[in-house]
Amino acid sequence: MKPFLLALALGAAAPTPASAFAAAPVAAPVADTDIQRLVALLAPDEAVTRLAGKAFDTGMDRQIAANPERKAAYAADPAMRQAVGGQLRAQFASALVAALPSLRAEIEGILRTALTPAEVTDMLAFFGSPTGQKVRAEAYERMGSAPGQSPQEMQQAAIAAVMAKMTAEDYPALMAFAGSTASQKMGTVNPRISAASQAWADRLIAANLPKLKALEDKLAADYRARKGGK
């Protein structure tokens, strides 16, 4: 029973990728301040930026591995990988932070139409509690530690990790939230948020990839020039 409750809570804390989503019932309007507080709890800037940075590093490593010329160049000089990758990562992070308000607005719109004021209150209460903070932190930690895993694998790993950290004091809050309509409704809302997030990420990458590739070439050339001049 306890792992099942954690699955419900983790599902609300960390929406999983989905290619399509079902329509959610329209609910009464919710005060913008409550919705914004909820989005800030579920997708804090620091956690999203850290997660995106890890994903960027993984993506860059895969691109290098797929390009024999780049792979050989970086293998011959690992310090260049760190120098170039670090600056590219910072550039990508800047673009992400600038675009993050648009993602928040999309998530706010989904939650505003899907949740009732009482359900928003329930989610704020749980995810703002010490137990909810444990769940959120572990969800993001698991998402960042194994980007190649499927959503189901990440959730199972997160459940196991959170179970090890739960105490007797955590279960009343966990059980109360798992029995709420807010937790149950997230099964419908999460795919909508995931689809919107994926589309947002695709647009962000499409807009910045050409610039990042050009910047990588320049940074690598500058690095070689500096090293050759020593």
Q: Secondary-structure blueprint of this entry?
A:
Layout: H1 2-13, H2 32-42, H3 45-66, H4 68-76, H5 78-114, H6 117-127, H7 130-145, H8 151-165, H9 171-178, H10 181-228
Helix pairs in contact: 1-7, 1-8, 1-9, 1-10, 2-5, 2-6, 3-5, 3-7, 5-10, 7-8
Give the termini distance in whole angstroms.
64 Å
What general form does the structure show? elongated
Number of beta strands: 0
Element-by-element helix/strand order: HHHHHHHHHH
Helix fraction bin: over 70%
- Whole-number total of structural domains: 1
Biggest sheet architecture? none
Rounded average pLDDT: 78
How many individual helices? 10
Cα gyration radius (Å):
20 Å
Spans with pLDDT under 50 lasting ≥5 residues? 1-11, 14-29
Give the oligomeric state.
single chain
Query: What is the strand content?
Result: under 5%
Helical/strand content category: mainly alpha
Name the descriptors.
230 residues; 10 helices
Task: State the gist of this model.
This protein is mainly alpha-helical and 230 residues long. Helix content is 82%, strand content 0%. It has one domain (2-8, 28-228).
Describe this structure as you would to a colleague.
This protein is mostly helical and 230 residues long. The protein is 82% helix and 0% strand. It has helices spanning 2-13, 32-42, 45-66, 68-76, 78-114, 117-127, 130-145, 151-165, 171-178, 181-228.
